[in-house]
Sequence to fold (276 residues):
Amino acid sequence: RVKSEGRNGWCFFRPEMDEQLQRRLEMEQDLKRALADNQFQLYFQPLLDLGSHEITSFEALLRWHHPVRGMVSPAEFIPVAEESGLIGPLGEWVLKTACNAAANWPQPWRIAVNISPLQFRHKSLPVLVKKALKASGLPASRLELEITESVLLENEKQNLSILTQIREQGVRIAMDDFGTGYSSLSYLRAFPFDKIKIDQSFVRDLPHDRDALSIIRAITDMAQSLGVRITAEGVETPAQMDALKDLGCHEAQGYLIGRPAPGIDAYCPVAKTVAA
Ligand code: C2E
Ligand code: MG
Ligand code: MG
Ligand code: MG
Fold:
């Protein structure tokens, strides 16, 4: 018997649960090998400044090429990596690889790296960041870390101090998936975020949904007065992009501007001409 959300809290172990558990255990085993076997790769997705219409940065998005299952989504394997403790070494690999890549870019574009809340528990994150910058030669001002509010939900004091140590190096800190948590707003007072990224669930309903419009307007108004930059995620249509610009968003990210890709060559017209 296992605990479940059932009426009396208990139910009999069903074969499909067995399968789920099996799949998870297998994934954990496979993940352990994946790092040593070079099965991970970073994709990069551009962010566009809505004022200047120039690319400002790229977000690094992790991809896992499973030898049998093919491409596995980070939404599926990041939670397993977090539960099994593998997020430590995996997150370190992402940080190093992202900094090394950005240090070689032909433009001073920034790189944004997603950091799991659990990475705040391992080793010293500020030291890992410092080492990744030093080894790659990437200036701190060109690195941005994306965190979610759950980082401040637990160990708030300790994690705020870690964030402060990182920011003091000159690294920017962005709050990701803004608006999906319970206390997003209160955390804007607790820490001087450089950027907030409005979750794609709000952008999806633009430009017609009144609620989405007023929520985004409230976020941009508040961000304006706090001096925080606003990025909108998941921008897929020109109408959404126009609405976001009208609402005062500074930056946009989404399939309309560019899908995540293994390289940034498509955004380097000069390099392409030279190579041709
Ligand atoms: P996120 O950080 O919020 O990243 C944005 C996600 O939205 C990415 O999904 C991206 O591919 C997707 N996306 C971008 N533009 C559009 C669009 O126009 N429409 C739609 N429908 N989706 C769009 P992805 O790559 O599957 O990553 C999912 C999540 O996995 C990320 O959400 C992030 O939380 C996590 N993740 C990805 N890479 C890493 C990593 O290196 N470390 C950690 N800790 N988490 C990561
Ligand atoms: Mg992100
Ligand atoms: Mg997001
Ligand atoms: Mg997300």
Observations:
- The chain is about 45% helix and 20% strand.
